[in-house]
Amino acid sequence: MRRFLIVALIVASSVVALTFALKSENKIVLLDIPVLKVDFGKELNVNLSSFVNASKKPISFQIKEGKGRIEENIYSISSEEVEESARVEIEVRSGNTETVMTLELEISDSYEKPSMKIELQKVFEGEPLELELRDFTSGGSGLITYEVVTGVGFIEGSVYHYTPEFDEAPSAYRVTLKAIDERNYWYCETFSVLVLDVNHRPEEPNSPYPSHGVSDFMKQTVLSWSCNDPDGDNLFFDVYFGEDGNMKKIAAAIADNSLQVAELLPGRKYTWQVVANDGRGGESSGTIWNFSTKEMPKIRWKRLLGGSAKDSVFSIDTLADGSFIMAGYSESSEIQTNRASSELFRSGWVVRLDGNGNLAWQKAFDFGWTEFMDIIPTADGGYLVVGRSSPGQGYSGDSHRQLLVVKLDRFANVRWKTVLSGLFNSAAAAVEVEEGFLVLGTATDEKTAKSSVSLLKLDQSGRVLWEKSFGGSLHDRAVDMVLLPGGDIVIVAETESSDGDSIGNTSTAFIMNGITIAKSSVLVVRVDELGNKIWSRVFGGSGEDSPAAVKVNGEGEIFVCGSTNSADGDFPKDGLHYDGFLLKISPEGRLLWNNTYGGRANDGLQDLVLTDSGGAVMVGFTESADDGLGDFHRGELEKLGLTNSNFWVLQVDRNGELLWSQCYGGSLGDVATSITRSGSGYVIGGYTASSDGDVPSNRGNYDTLIFLLR
Predict the structure, then answer these.
(1) C-alpha to C-alpha distances, 104 to 29, 30, 329, 547, nearest whole angstrom
(2) DSSP labels for 605-664?
(3) What's the rounded Cα separation, in Å, for the pair 687 and 675?
(4) How far is 51 from 28, CA to CA, in rounded Å?
(5) Tens of pLDDT along 241-290?
(6) Are the CB atoms for 667 and 635 separated by under 8 Å?
(7) What pLDDT score was predicted for residue 295?
(8) CA 573 to chain centre
(9) What is the pairing mode between strands 74-78 and 489-495?
(10) Which domains does the chain have, with CATH numbers?
């Protein structure tokens, strides 16, 4: 029994010893763990086993709390996963024993945040201040962006820019700039900009009038120029003037930027110069400019065209080679080669003259009773001609008229023809635009007699792309149009309406034989390239005002000529006879000035061209004998108490003042209808019934007279 008890005690004692031994073998001892530093932009890899003292049994690790990852015994974490510091708890297990290991992590970074230091900056007014901000920045990564928080100036890339105005000094500004690096660290720096006063020289005098190198007719002129001072100082000018470079001072220290020079002689070359002074020691001399004065133009050649009946041209244009193309109508059987002389018929007529006015070719077009009102050269070397036609061989007020557009090749062969019936009855003008043509015409309702102005866009094959109408509720007639430098279109029409686009019309009406007859005014409409109206204006008085032609200069200013018998409104002249008129209108539709021209009888203007010196040469007719309009050819009709007319040519300066006026023709009716530039001269066309004076002969009825003035 005792032996059994001893054995039991030995066994029990052995079990306790074994258990204690097992527990001793599974004990996990954590060693001191230093703070683990993670280099910025890199990854930390650490062997966790190096921080544990345990038995030889396998040890496992698992993240209990925090970021990172464990593969076998290796703990890894990227610096991007750690802010400035972090704490990670890892469960450590060995057999049946476990404990928790704590890791302290820190970002190890030598990165320097951006900073700037900018001292007081001084700059003279009108001079640029430029700062390369990278030169004033320290720290940060290689990629830093900058922005202006408050103050003056702007930043392009890494350069700060500021240019004070010439009148800012003295002044001071506080400027705050912000530097931002690619890690979104930022720094704001505030500095001062002091603008210092300095006297700058005046700008060089510029924009002379007359323009440099211009040659034109001038009896006297007002020299003018532009000049500004950067500091806003008052300027004073010395003006030097003379012939052929022999200049002398003709004005000293004048405050105006213009000076009248009288008694200019024809056929001379004048030079002039302007010196600007700001009264504070700043001085600038302008370029030496010159201009030449022309002699009174004379007829250099003249040509009579036509046949035994009525022949006239309404449009003439100069071609690139110096020759001339013109269009109108002919009733002469000699020109209408397929007509008998006994037949009364009107054909469209196209004529080409060489540069010396000699007949190159002519051609009549039978589209019914036809009149061509305008012809233009086209980009393909051909022509576009527009007008009207009526079916049959004759024309009366009851005949059905059609708007006519004809495309000709360079030899005047018809390529295509567009005829618009119904409300369309006449075309007045055409221009070539991108991908086609614009045609201006009149559309009349035959039942109501109401007519409106129509602008048509045709493609290169003559198909109508769109149509826009303008005017009011009464009679409106298309006259002419012109393209502005930017692509807009100015339309000129005769209007009797006082509503719609014609609001503001002040013309009156009169009653004759119980019929109310409205008087017309001048309607000017500006539209964009799609025909959408930008503005419309009405000009005139209480009488009859009829526009005839429109031109535009390089500044977009609009010139409209025509005839008026008004004595009020925009035409405050003496008498109720007809005079010619010229309107100058701003691109915005504001009347800049208006003038009337003529004598004591009826006079009218039909066409114009603009001159190099900013004025215009106009043509038409005059019945005013001995009224200072030029040499007038008296005729036999005057002995009978009747009147006749002469070709009338006149030139005005840029303010509308008359420079010269001259009459040409014979003893019967002579009317100029068109004018075109030809080098330094002008080619003028019209019709004449005379056979004396300036008209060499007459082939019958009305002939066409073409002559060159130079």
Answers:
(1) 18, 14, 106, 96
(2) EEEEEE-TTS-EEEEEEE--TTSSSS-----HHHHTT----EEEEEEE-TTS-EEEEEEE
(3) 13
(4) 11
(5) 999 889 999 999 999 999 999 889 999 999 999 999 999 889 999 999 99
(6) yes
(7) 92
(8) 36
(9) unpaired
(10) 23-108 (2.60.40.10), 115-196 (2.60.40.10), 206-293 (2.60.40.10)
> Is residue 343 predicted with pLDDT exceeding 90?
no
Quick one: 415 exposed, middle or buried, by C-beta within 10 A (0-12, 13-18, 19+)?
A: middle
Which contiguous run of DSSP H or E holds residue 24?
helix 2-25
pLDDT score, position 9: 36
Structure tokens at 217: 């007719």
How confident is the model over 464-510, as pLDDT tens digits?
999 999 999 999 999 999 999 999 999 999 999 999 999 988 776 65
Task: Label residue 24 left, alpha or beta by phi (over 0 means left) and psi (-120 to 50 means alpha).
Answer: alpha
Residue-wise DSSP of 128-163? -EEEEGGGGEESS-S-EEEEEEESS-EEETTEEEE-
User: Which of 358, 361, 295 shows the shortest CA–CA distance to 709?
Assistant: 295
Which pTM value belongs to this model? 0.72
Amino acid at 27: K
Task: Extract the tokens encoding 704.
Answer: 């066409």
Are 417 and 367 in contact by the 8 Å Cβ rule? The answer is: yes
Consecutive H or E run containing 9 = helix 2-25
Q: What is the pLDDT of residue 494?
A: 96
Q: Phi and psi of 690, rounded to 5°?
A: -80, 165
Q: 462 CB contacts (<8 Å, ≥6 apart)?
A: 405, 407, 416, 417, 418
Count the alpha carbons within 13 Å of 131 in the hemisphere toward its beta carbon: 25
pLDDT attached to residue 517? 60
Q: What is the DSSP string of 425-464?
A: EEEEEEEEETTEEEEEEEEE-TTT--EEEEEEEE-TTS-E
H/E run at residue 6: helix 2-25
Phi, psi at 136, each rounded to 5°: -110, 5
Which tokens sit at 593? 């000035």
- Please count the helices (runs of H) and the strands (runs of E) in the chain: 2, 57
309-313, 362-366, 621-625 — which is least confidently predicted? 621-625
> CB burial class (10 A; 0-12, 13-18, 19+) of residue 597?
buried
- pLDDT exceeds cutoff 80 at 339: no
Amino acid at the residue 146:
Y
**Residue 631 φ/ψ, nearest 5 degrees:** -65, 115
Lowest-pLDDT range of 47-56, 183-192, 555-564, 663-672: 47-56
The residue type found at 649 is V
- Burial code (b: 16+ CB inside 10 Å, e: under 16) for 513-540 equals eeeeebbbbbbbbbbeeebeeeebbbbb
Count other C-beta atoms under 10 Å from residue 626's C-beta.
9
- Between 14-28, 36-50, 642-656, the lowest mean confidence (pLDDT) is in 14-28
Any idea which residue has 């190198």 for tokens? Answer: 213
* 244 backbone φψ class: left, alpha, beta (φ>0; ψ -120 to 50): left
Q: Which residue blocks in 151-198 are alpha helix, DSSP H?
A: none
Return the DSSP state at 639. Answer: H
- C-alpha dihedral over 116, 122, 128, 134, to 10 degrees? -10
Comparison of pLDDT for 99 and 85, the residue scoring more: 99
Dist. CA 545–CA 523, nearest whole Å: 10
- The two beta strands, 97-108 and 36-39, are parallel
Per-residue pLDDT tens digits for 580-616: 999 999 999 999 999 999 988 999 999 999 999 999 9
Beta partners for residue 104, in sequence order: 87
Q: What is the mean pLDDT of residues 164-186?
A: 90
- Report CA 344 to chain centroid distance, whole Å: 49
Q: Is the pLDDT of residue 158 over 90?
A: yes
CB-based burial, 371-408: b 16+ in 10 Å, e otherwise? bbbbbbbbeeebbbbbbbbbeeeebeeeeebbbbbbbb
Kind and range of the H or E element at 7? helix 2-25
Give CA–CA dist 306/315, Å, rounded.
15
